[in-house]
């Protein structure tokens, strides 16, 4: 189940990146590159930070295939995908929860402090989108309106709280994912956001 959710999240991020690139009127190669960095940019940065090389997607070619499929779907069905925005949002949200957990686990494998693991979880889930927005000449979404990164941090804190209670691992993963997904859905539904900072 965890691997299936990882694949769905990767594909959702690939489609999201591809659609963003198409809105910027990029050529097919540009669209593919943006789809790729959106999907694996966060995980690549995480692996570089913890000295895990070759990085994850280089060791598992299935990630490349999933991204190529997401890219192809976005190219072929780009005019129809608007009808599936809610479904794509759901997959994106699932990806957010799963990628946060993957980052947390990679940090724990390295024996890092909980606070550093939470940072790695946030980087894994969010920084593909940051790289996408920078390459598309946009201020990254997580820095201007949605509480995207904040949700990952809350999920990470919840993860370590449950871990301290010695809850079984499967339940721990499930409950952490569910809290991230639930907060994300509520944040979008109720338009939660952090206040902007004005120099005046």
TrEMBL record:
It is found in: Cell membrane. It is a multi-pass membrane protein. Pfam families: Gly_transporter. Coiled coil: none annotated. Residues 4-78, 90-163 form the Glycine transporter domain. The chain crosses the membrane at residues 6-22, 29-45, 57-76, 147-165, 171-190. InterPro entries: Gly_transporter. Keywords: Cell membrane, Membrane, Transmembrane, Transmembrane helix. One of its GO terms (cellular component) is plasma membrane. PANTHER family: INNER MEMBRANE PROTEIN (PTHR30506), UPF0126 INNER MEMBRANE PROTEIN YADS-RELATED (PTHR30506:SF3). Belongs to the UPF0126 family. This is Uncharacterized membrane protein YeiH. It comes from Flavobacterium saliperosum.
